[in-house]
């Protein structure tokens, strides 16, 4: 495989990964915003507390989506470690997301439904960049290149054997 075709393959893979991450992320944003606004309007929780609860619910939702949709082809060994790292990086994202909302609400005095949702969404955006990098780098790790090469070799051998069997049956 030439370097250009290898680069093309990697870019296509990255594009698919970003698209899948985005699908789960958009659904998670929906869960986050719905829970946030329900808590703000139905309970007496303060703005940032409502946001923290909503973010925690969205984190649980997103883990399931990432593990079984976006990164289902990734190494599944060490599920406990994976969940621990996911939680660790998600909590950092939670702090980023809600730190922005906290700064706007209590630091700048921008408290109201429109301002809260705007800065909640802005915080989600900044935290999403961090989460994408950390999840793909540390949590949902790719299989080692050696394992991929071995799998490709096995598939090549199987295809070659299938061609030999077809040729024998044609005789």
UniProtKB/TrEMBL annotation:
Q: What are the record's GO terms for cellular component? A: plasma membrane
Keywords assigned: Membrane, Transmembrane, Transmembrane helix
This chain's source organism reads Streptantibioticus cattleyicolor (strain ATCC 35852 / DSM 46488 / JCM 4925 / NBRC 14057 / NRRL 8057)
Compartment(s) where it occurs, according to its Swiss-Prot or TrEMBL record: Membrane
Which named protein is this?
A: Integral membrane protein
Single GO BP term: polysaccharide biosynthetic process
The residues that cross the membrane are: 21-39, 51-71, 83-102, 114-133
Stated membrane topology is: Multi-pass membrane protein
InterPro entries found in the cross-reference section? GtrA_CellWall_Glycosyl (IPR051401), GtrA_DPMS_TM (IPR007267)
Similarity section: Belongs to the GtrA family.
* Record PANTHER family: PROPHAGE BACTOPRENOL-LINKED GLUCOSE TRANSLOCASE HOMOLOG
**In this protein, which residues make up the domain named GtrA/DPMS transmembrane?**
20-140
Q: Does the keyword Transmembrane helix apply?
A: yes
State whether keyword Iron applies. no
Which is an annotated Pfam family here? GtrA_DPMS_TM
């Amino acid at each position: 495989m030439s370097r250009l075709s290898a680069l093309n393959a990697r870019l296509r893979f990255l594009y698919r990964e970003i698209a899948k991450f985005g699908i789960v992320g958009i659904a998670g944003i929906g869960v986050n915003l719905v829970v946030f606004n329900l808590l703000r309007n139905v309970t007496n929780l303060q703005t940032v507390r409502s946001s923290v609860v909503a973010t925690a619910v969205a984190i649980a939702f997103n883990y399931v989506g990432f593990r079984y949709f976006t990164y289902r082809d990734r190494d599944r060994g060490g599920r406990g470690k994976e969940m621990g790292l996911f939680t660790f990086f998600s909590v950092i994202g939670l702090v980023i997301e809600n730190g922005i909302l906290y700064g706007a609400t209590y630091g700048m005095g921008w408290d109201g439904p429109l301002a809260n949702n705007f800065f909640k969404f802005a915080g989600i955006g900044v935290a999403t960049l961090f989460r994408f990098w950390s999840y793909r780098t540390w949590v949902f790790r790719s299989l080692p290149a050696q394992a991929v090469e071995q799998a490709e070799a096995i598939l090549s051998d199987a295809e070659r054997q299938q061609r030999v069997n077809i040729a024998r049956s044609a005789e």
